[in-house]
Design a protein that fits this description.
Blueprint (H helix, E strand, L loop, with lengths): L4 E11 L8 E15 L4 E5 L13 H13 L6 E7 L9 H16 L6 H12 L3 H8 L2 E6 L4 E6 L5 E8 L5 H6 L7 H20 L5 H4 L6 H4 L6 H7 L7 E4 L6 E6 L5 H13 L5 E6 L7 E4 L7 H9 L2
Parallel strand pairs: 3-4
Antiparallel strand pairs: 1-2, 1-11, 2-4, 2-5, 5-6, 7-9, 7-10, 8-9
Helix pairs in contact: 1-2, 2-3, 2-4, 3-4
Length: 322
C-alpha cells in the first residue's frame, strides 16, 4: 500500500571542482525540501519568491520526474500533491535542477515503498542531466567521482575531510548551463587533455587522503574554465589569485556563474578571502552574495509525514527561516 505523504530534503551540489569536468561533484549544506503525496487532483505549491516562473502544473519537472519513477516501477499515480521550497538559487551553478530531479525521484520512490534501488534512481537522474556529478552528489552526499558513457553511470563516494569548508560567491545574474556549454570547443589539444587528467587525478587523491595542501596545485583546469571566463567578469582574477588570500583553491561552480573557493576551516584568513571575492566581482560591476558552506556528508533523505504534522509552508516559516 502506498505511503500517504513524504517529505524529502536534498542538498545542493557543486560540480567539476576545476579539472573534474562532468565527473566530480560535492554535496553542500544548502537544501531544497519537497512534500509529496498521492492525491485525487494535482496541485503544485511553490514556496518563496525565487520559485517565480517555475511551472505549477503537470509540466513541472518534479511532477514529470515522479511519473518516470511510477512508470519504471509499473504503478500508476497520475495525480500528486506537491509542495517545494528551496534555498538553492536557480541557474547559478549550485545544482538546482539536479536537486529537483533527485528530490522528485526519492519522493516518488518513497511513496511507493522504495520499489527502485538507489542505483536505478542514479541511472534515471544521470540520463536526465546528461552528466552524473551533480545528481550523484545530491543523491549520495559527500564527494562523488563518477562517469557516464551514454548508457550507464558509475560512481565512488568519498567522505569529505572534516576541515574542508566552502566559500561561494553567487553573482546577481543567472547563467544557463546551455549557454555556458556553448562557448566550449568540441575538440581540445592533447596537452590540455593530459593537463586535466593529471590535475583531476591529483585532486581526487588529495581529497581522498586529506592532503588539503595539495589542492592548490590540483585544482587547475584547461578544458572549460578558460572558455567560460569571459561570461563572468572577474572570474579569471579569482582563479589566479584566490590562493594568495587564503583559499586552498578556486573554481567555477558547475556551469556558473557562482565562484567557489575551498578553504581549510582552521584558516585565519577567511574574512580576507571573502572580501577578495566580493570586491573582485564588484570591480566588474557585479553584486554577489557570499555564503560559507560545508560539504554535506548526507545525501537526499526521505521521511513519512503523519497526520497533524506541520506542512512545508509552516516548516519554512518556522524551522528553516528562523
Amino acid at each position: 500500500m502506498p505511503t500517504q505523504k513524504v517529505r524529502v530534503r536534498v542538498p545542493a551540489s557543486t560540480a567539476n571542482l576545476g579539472p573534474g569536468f562532468d565527473s566530480l561533484g560535492m554535496a553542500l549544506n544548502l537544501y531544497a525540501w519537497i512534500d509529496m503525496s498521492i492525491s485525487d487532483n494535482t496541485t503544485i505549491h511553490l514556496i518563496g519568491d525565487q520559485m517565480n516562473g517555475v511551472p505549477a502544473d503537470k509540466s513541472n519537472l518534479i511532477y514529470k520526474v515522479a511519473q518516470m519513477v511510477f512508470e519504471q516501477a509499473g504503478v500508476s499515480h497520475p495525480e500528486l500533491d506537491i509542495a517545494m521550497y528551496s534555498e538553492i538559487p536557480l541557474t547559478r551553478g549550485l545544482g538546482s535542477s539536479a536537486s529537483a530531479i533527485i528530490g522528485a525521484l526519492a519522493g516518488a520512490n518513497a511513496l511507493i515503498g522504495y520499489k527502485l534501488t538507489q542505483d536505478e534512481l542514479f541511472q534515471i537522474a544521470t540520463r536526465l542531466e546528461k552528466h552524473p556529478d551533480n545528481v550523484g552528489a545530491s543523491l549520495f552526499g559527500g564527494i562523488v567521482v563518477a562517469f557516464w558513457d551514454g548508457h550507464r553511470a558509475e560512481s565512488i563516494r568519498l567522505e569529505p575531510d572534516v576541515n574542508l569548508e566552502v566559500l561561494v560567491a553567487i553573482p546577481a545574474f543567472q547563467l544557463s548551463t546551455e549557454k555556458a556549454r556553448s562557448v566550449m570547443p568540441q575538440q581540445v589539444m592533447m596537452k590540455d587533455a593530459v593537463f586535466n587528467l593529471s590535475h583531476s587525478s591529483l585532486l581526487v587523491a588529495a581529497l581522498s587522503t586529506g592532503n588539503l595542501g595539495m589542492i592548490r596545485y590540483a585544482m587547475k583546469d584547461a578544458l572549460h574554465q578558460p572558455y567560460r571566463a569571459p561570461l563572468i567578469p572577474g572570474m579569471a582574477t579569482i582563479l589566479e589569485q584566490a590562493d594568495q588570500y587564503g583559499a586552498l583553491g578556486a573554481a567555477l561552480s558547475g556551469a556558473g556563474p557562482t565562484m567557489l573557493a575551498l578553504v581549510d576551516a582552521r584558516s585565519e584568513r577567511k574574512a580576507e578571502l571573502e572580501t577578495f571575492l566580493k570586491e573582485t566581482l564588484l570591480k566588474e560591476g557585479i553584486e554577489a552574495q557570499t555564503l560559507w558552506l560545508k560539504p554535506s556528508a548526507e545525501g537526499v533523505t526521505t521521511s513519512q509525514l503523519h497526520e497533524g504534522e506541520a506542512d512545508l509552508q509552516a516548516l519554512v516559516q518556522g524551522e528553516v527561516l528562523t
